[in-house]
Amino acid sequence: ERVVEVVKDITKCEGYFKITLESGEVISSKKVVVACGSFTNFFNILPSKRELDLQLIGHTVLKFELGEKDTEKMADFPSMVYKPCKDSSYIYILPPIKYPTGKLI
After folding, report:
1. pLDDT in tens, 68-88
2. Fewest CB within 10 angstroms: 30, 39, 44, 47, which?
3. DSSP designation for 69
4. How many Å apart are CA 71 and CA 65, to the nearest integer?
């Protein structure tokens, strides 16, 4: 069974892993796939208290609220990463997203 939940702790036991979820529920599994990117070091989910060599950095985020017409025009835009030169920061651009609030950003 596939479980997609926030994991707070993984303990290796004999022949299985004991997994504690954010809800407090404890489940077990023979295999675990960890796919949490930059949040890996914030929880006890790697073996032997190891940490990934990650550097946290801040970013400025701009969000633009769009109208229906502009959203329709940009609906097929791809996600893009633009880095103007080797030593510069990059720009990450997403197509319009409709949020649960109904706003188009």
Report:
1. 899 889 989 899 888 888 777
2. 30
3. H
4. 9
